[in-house]
Design a protein that fits this description.
Elements: H1 10-16, E1 41-45, H2 49-60, E2 64-69, H3 74-81, E3 86-89, E4 102-105, H4 110-123, E5 126-129, E6 142-146, E7 149-153, H5 160-173, H6 178-193, H7 199-210, H8 213-219, H9 223-235, E8 242-247, H10 258-266, E9 269-272, H11 278-281, E10 289-292, H12 304-316, E11 320-325, H13 335-345, E12 349-352, H14 357-365, E13 377-382, H15 386-390, H16 394-397, E14 402-407, H17 413-422, E15 430-435, E16 443-448, H18 452-459, E17 465-469, H19 476-479
Parallel strand pairs: 1-2, 1-4, 2-3, 4-5, 8-11, 8-12, 9-10, 9-11, 13-14
Antiparallel strand pairs: 6-7, 14-17, 15-16, 15-17
Helix pairs in contact: 6-7, 8-9, 12-13
Length: 501
């Protein structure tokens, strides 16, 4: 049928919560809405088992349901006999769609369903044709009911079985007491709105209520204690602004940590680097302010002192600030410098580590950073400019038996090659370039130390790219498992992420 079995995907949640400006996504096939049907007329054409299910759904929403059919199944006839709905015995007449808010064609006969759809379209009524998505102007979502919390789910009718399986997962995540928690919040809403609280403090109050000890009391059936705790929480001072230094990982949204996701969902403002992907930014809270403070290679750059000052200012104004960095903030991310500035200014902060590019790219490319047969040590080094290359102890790095993971080295390949060769590293040493690692655009180029410059030039290796130099780098040819996909005009929404525990 055009509605689908119940279910939801985490990627769909991420898509709905995304920022339109950050993802090149197509227009929604169906706009998700919650309609108040109480006392509103709705028409169901067909009185078999399918028509019965549709009628029951409408009745549950309080609609005034009329069913048209020559005959009805026993259960539907019983609903009509008790006055729950109106059953008009007979065939469909186009005049019946007049005045109806919603129309459903559930006869199972293509000719009759087509007549219903055409009549509804002419009258400007929304129509659902069961099992025929092409004829539908609306579809029934799958529903997870924790009233007054209701989750509506749809894949546009394309994957009902998958939707059903995903719904089962969501059902397990959402406690049955969730409705009681929402009802408690509803009882307190007017009182909290009447308190002289700022918008930020009011939102934080509700966050404490709905995702803290008070929520735990409700889930434990101790609602009287929860009511008392809500009153006390209104009088407690707000914690004020703070900064979260968060590692976003190397690119794949699936590598984002749960704590990083939680911070992004609660931040008032997110200051992000250039290499943080749009798919990751799409997971931020919808009304969070996104500010790019990235540095462009050989282009416009945001001064680090200005970034530090911005972090302090935002936090002092009472905001929760997420400083979002690619990889890990403490691995060539200047996270230490930013924390020093925050400490000096007396601003509270927390660090959320991320998967650094060396670890993520090596894993996705099949390059073991340590291996008993090849490399017993690994060294992380940056080569973002000629000065950084010249400051490195290349004599130590040229020793065999270790893996070099070179960050930001795509533009310094000849200097890295020359430095290692001149200090005795063998020209046959395997080299693997990982460009756009862990993303759909990942590309691997295998080479050797002696020919890495020529190979990188021929293959046009470009930033962002990691260089892995060492015997273990040769294993990328056999252990590489991740298959990249060609870039398309539509970017996929974030990969599956558990938004709840």
């Amino acid at each position: 049928m055009a509605g689908e079995a119940n279910g939801i995907s985490h990627a769909a949640i991420a898509h709905v919560a995304s920022h339109p400006s950050t993802l090149r996504t197509p227009a929604l096939d169906y706009l998700p809405l919650f309609a108040r049907l109480s006392g509103r007329p709705c028409l169901v054409v067909g009185a078999g088992e399918v028509g019965l299910r549709k009628a029951r759904t409408l009745l549950a929403a309080g609609a005034q349901v009329t069913v048209v059919a020559p005959a009805a199944c026993e259960a539907l006839a019983a609903l009509a006999a008790t006055g729950r709905l109106c059953w008009r015995r007979g065939t469909f007449d186009p005049v019946l769609v007049e005045g109806q808010l919603l129309v459903i064609a559930a006869t199972g006969r293509p000719d009759v369903d087509a007549q219903v759809q055409q009549a509804a379209n002419r009258a400007g009524r929304l129509v659902n044709v069961v099992d025929d998505a092409a004829r539908c102007s609306y579809i029934f979502p799958a529903i997870v009911d924790r009233s007054p919390i209701v989750v509506a789910i749809s894949s546009g009718g394309t994957a009902p079985v998958l939707a059903r399986l995903l719904r089962e997962r969501l059902e397990a995540l959402l406690p049955a007491s969730l409705g009681r928690l929402a009802a408690l919040a509803g009882r307190w809403r007017s009182r909290v709105s009447g308190e002289p609280l700022s918008f930020v403090r009011r939102r934080r109050y509700w966050e404490r209520v709905l995702d803290g000890d008070i929520a735990s009391l409700v889930h434990a059936g101790r609602e009287a204690e929860a009511e008392q705790a809500m009153a006390r929480a209104l009088d407690e001072p707000d914690a004020g602004g703070c900064v979260y230094l968060v590692g976003a990982g190397p690119g794949d949204p699936g590598l984002l940590t749960l704590r990083a996701l939680q911070v992004m969902q609660r931040a008032d403002v997110i200051l992000h680097d250039r290499l943080v992907s749009p798919e990751i930014l799409a997971l931020a809270r919808r009304d969070a302010r996104l500010v790019s403070v990235g540095k462009q290679p050989r282009g416009r750059a945001h001064d680090q002192a200005a970034i530090n000052a911005r972090l302090v200012t935002e936090a002092r104004e009472g905001r929760r600030v997420c400083r979002l960095k690619g990889g890990d903030p403490f691995v060539f991310g200047r996270g230490g410098e930013e924390l020093e500035a925050l400490h000096a200014a007396g601003v509270a902060f927390e660090v959320v580590p991320g998967i650094t590019a060396a670890v993520g790219c090596a894993a996705y490319a099949g390059v073991p950073l340590t291996h008993r047969d090849h490399n017993s040590a690994v060294t992380l080094v940056t080569a973002h400019c000629r000065e950084s290359v010249e400051c490195v102890d290349w004599a130590e790095l040229a020793r065999p038996g270790q893996m070099l993971a070179v960050y930001m080295g795509a533009g310094q390949v000849p200097h890295v090659r020359e430095a290692l060769l001149s200090h005795g590293r063998a020209a046959s040493t395997p080299v693997t370039f990982v460009e756009n690692g862990t993303t759909r655009r990942q590309r691997i180029v295998r080479s050797t130390l002696g020919s890495m410059h020529a190979d990188a030039a021929r293959e046009r290796v470009a930033a962002p790219a990691m260089l892995f130099i060492g015997e273990g780098a040769a294993l990328a040819g056999t252990l590489g498992w991740f298959k990249s996909q060609p870039e398309s005009g539509t970017r996929a929404a974030a990969r599956s992420l558990a938004l709840a525990g």
